[in-house]
Amino acid sequence: MRHLSNGSLTGNSQILRGNMTRAERKLWYHFLKHLPITVNRQKVIGNYIVDFYIDAFRLVIELDGDQHGESAELAKDQVRDTWLREQGMTVLRYPNSAVNSSLEGVCQDILDHLPGIQAPVIE
Fold first, then answer.
1. What CATH code is carried by the domain that includes residue 95?
2. Which of 25, 40, 42, 108 is 20 to 30 A from residue 19's alpha carbon, by CA?
3. Of 81, 90, 96, residue with least CA distance to 113
4. CA separation, residue 104 to residues 1, 18, 50 (Å)
């Protein structure tokens, strides 16, 4: 697979990994980190940094804060999602509020896009 990498964004992605939002941390530490496949955080793909990426399924997971409800941000998200889909990726978007209020539902939806992957057992 050609990963349209952009070295100029690598530093930014490293900073973002160290400063994940509350919702990103919750989804990562309670679910994604425990999946039996590789999940990348703050992955550079082309001119974008995606919140989470699962290469084995070409799956992008984006968590959206309140600013994503504004028309300018919605337009940017649409351009970004279209480009990612043109590269053969599936894009899942969840508002932070969904992660905070119904984490199980978000996790189940992600699992529905990962055929053959079992939910991790977290103790």
1. 3.40.960.10
2. 108
3. 90
4. 31, 25, 22
| Any domain includes 1 | no
Read off the pLDDT of residues 1-53 as tens digits, 9 standing for 90 and up: 445 555 555 555 555 555 688 999 999 999 999 999 999 999 989 889 899 99
In a domain, residue 72? The reply is: yes
With respect to residue 29, please indicate whether it lies within any of the assigned structural domains: yes
For residue 70, give its domain range: 7-112
Does residue 117 lie within any of the structural domains? no
Separation of alpha carbons 28 and 62, rounded Å: 12
Burial of 63 (0-12, 13-18, 19+ CB in 10 A): buried
The single-letter code of the amino acid at 92 is L
